[in-house]
Design goal:
Distance between the termini of chain B: 41 Å
Largest interface: A-B, 25 and 26 residues
Order of helices and strands of chain A: EEEEEEEEEEE
Shape of chain B: globular
Strand content of chain A: over 45%
Structural class of chain B: mainly beta
Radius of gyration of chain A: 13 Å
Structural class of chain A: mainly beta
Oligomer: heterodimer
Distance between the termini of chain A: 34 Å
Number of helices of chain A: 0
Number of strands of chain A: 11
Helix content of chain A: under 10%
Largest sheet of chain A: 7 strands, mixed
């Protein structure tokens, strides 16, 4: 059973489109995260939710909107996609101890 | 502010060589420190951790010691294998900041047979 699963794994789309990435965890963790990894492998936190409540919202454009329908799911919706949004987006879950479990990533390419 | 700095990669070694990847940090509180590993095409996995000064984290032959006096958490392995080829990330977390992990820039390791 996959602990943290995200879909789709690959996403190719045109500038200006709206897209969503879904994430689900079956580990029973209260906290979920979205991280962005750029082409140089640099990882930056975007959001975290604890039991459906937004805890961390880094300086991310408001075109990015996370939604957590329950503590096992954290989805990421992106409006009006731009070229600079091309990256790998990782979902993770954890217990606020710093021990995170990551999904395999969703590679977004904006053309 | 809080930050993590790692040695630049890529690091290329021959099998059975000794590995050191340097990591230093800046933190306003008392962080926990971590090493994560990312194998090609995969997400990150926790490799080891240390939660207080002088703690040593170890796993799969890798070790790192939390050195408060030098604000360092260098990763070492005595004899690397081809299967250790991956990107290694040093990270810190301060508990009063919502469980946010702050990562270094990653160091790519390539081990040749």
């Amino acid at each position: 059973d996959t602990a943290v699963s995200q879909t789709p794994k690959y996403l190719v789309t045109q500038m200006g489109n709206d897209k969503s990435i879904k994430c689900e965890q079956n580990l029973g963790h209260d906290t979920m995260y979205w991280y962005k990894q750029d082409s140089k492998k640099f990882l930056k936190i975007m959001f975290s939710y604890n039991n459906k409540e937004l805890i961390i919202n880094e300086t991310v454009p408001n075109r990015f909107s996370p939604k957590s329908p329950d503590k096992a799911h954290l989805n990421l919706h992106i409006n009006s996609l731009e070229l600079g949004d091309s990256a790998v987006y990782f979902c993770a879950s954890g217990l606020n101890t710093g021990e995170l479990f990551f999904g395999e990533g969703s590679r977004l390419t904006v053309l | 502010g809080n930050s993590v700095t790692q040695m630049e990669g890529p690091v290329t070694l021959s099998e059975e060589a000794f590995l050191t990847i340097n990591c230093t940090y800046t933190a306003t509180g008392y962080p926990s420190l971590f090493w994560y590993v990312q194998y090609p095409g995969e997400g990150l996995q926790l490799l080891l951790k240390a939660t207080k000064a002088d703690d040593k984290g170890s796993n799969k032959g890798f070790e790192a010691t939390y050195r408060k006096e030098t604000t360092s958490f260098h990763l070492e392995k005595g004899s690397v294998q081809v299967s250790d080829s991956a990107v290694y990330f040093c990270a810190l977390m301060i508990y009063n900041q919502g469980g946010k992990l702050i990562f270094g820039q990653g160091t790519e390791l390539s081990v040749k047979p």
